[in-house]
């Protein structure tokens, strides 16, 4: 039996980040799905925040997707999913932080206020600003692509991929669009969609749309 276990939930984009990293690294792991609406007692003991993903490795547990993924990078350094050099690594961490601190709050805000037209307009504006920032300050400045740090996939790519994969459901449900000039983001997403880590973990647009509609209490 594998010594690496991932406690996950199929629809969770944070757990998907870790599944993608495990696949990119070619690691053997056991996947255990937890029903988040009926969490087993043992889950509280290993997940202080009550959230997935959690990994169990050599008898110890680690939680928080970004922390787990850097742990995997340290313990299983080949193939490396971080760029070389302290400065580039700091850049990678800045862009992962941007995802969690700015991009995701902007996208969650839109789903929270979508029924109020003026609040929705403001939320759409903020989300479009976040896309432009990713495009112009991130992808365009860091490399010629297709990935964040060039030819090789990194933890930044696996950090964003599950969430930008789901943006298509936002387009469908909220009628929002990625700004037309964000060509590098589109190219990046197409390059990600070709990877095994994406193909083995994606649930497909229909499930994202249905899941999001269910969570928002919208008719199918
Ligand atoms: N910051 C966490 C977020 C994880 C998270 O929000 N997971 C959700 C599922 S997508 C969860 O487990 N929710 C269960 C709950 O909050 O009770 C990470 O990056 O791992």
Describe the structure.
- By secondary structure, the chain is of the alpha+beta class.
- The chain folds into two domains: 4-75, Glutaredoxin; 86-216, Glutathione S-transferase Yfyf (Class Pi), Chain A, domain 2 (Up-down Bundle).
- Helices cover 59% and strands 8% of the residues.
- A four-stranded mixed sheet has the order 2-1-3-4, covered by helices on one side.
- β3 (54-57) and β4 (60-63) form a beta hairpin.
- α1 packs antiparallel against α6 (155-174), α4 runs antiparallel to α5 and α4 packs parallel to α6 (155-174).
- The longest helix has 28 residues, at 86-113.
- 30% of the residues are buried.
- The model has no long low-confidence stretch (mean pLDDT 97).
Name the descriptors.
Glutathione S-transferase Yfyf (Class Pi), Chain A, domain 2; about 10% strand; about 220 residues; 9 helices; 4-stranded mixed beta sheet; single chain; Glutaredoxin; alpha+beta; globular; 4 strands
Task: Annotate the secondary structure layout.
Elements (H helix, E strand, L loop, with lengths): L3 E5 L4 H12 L5 E4 L7 H6 L7 E4 L2 E4 L1 H11 L10 H28 L3 H26 L12 H20 L8 H11 L2 H4 L5 H12 L4
Parallel strand pairs: 1-2
Antiparallel strand pairs: 1-3, 3-4
Helix pairs in contact: 1-3, 1-6, 4-5, 4-6, 6-9
Largest sheet: 4 strands, mixed
Number of structural units classed as domains: 2
Structure classification: alpha+beta
Query: Which hetero compounds are present in the coordinates?
Result: glutathione
The helix tally amounts to 9
CATH names the topology of the largest domain as Glutathione S-transferase Yfyf (Class Pi), Chain A, domain 2
* Order of H and E elements: EHEHEEHHHHHHH
Mean pLDDT: 97
Outline: globular
- Examine the secondary-structure arrangement and name the CATH architecture of the largest domain: Up-down Bundle
Cα-based radius of gyration, to the nearest Å: 18 Å
What distance lies between the first and last C-alpha atoms, to the nearest angstrom?
Answer: 41 Å
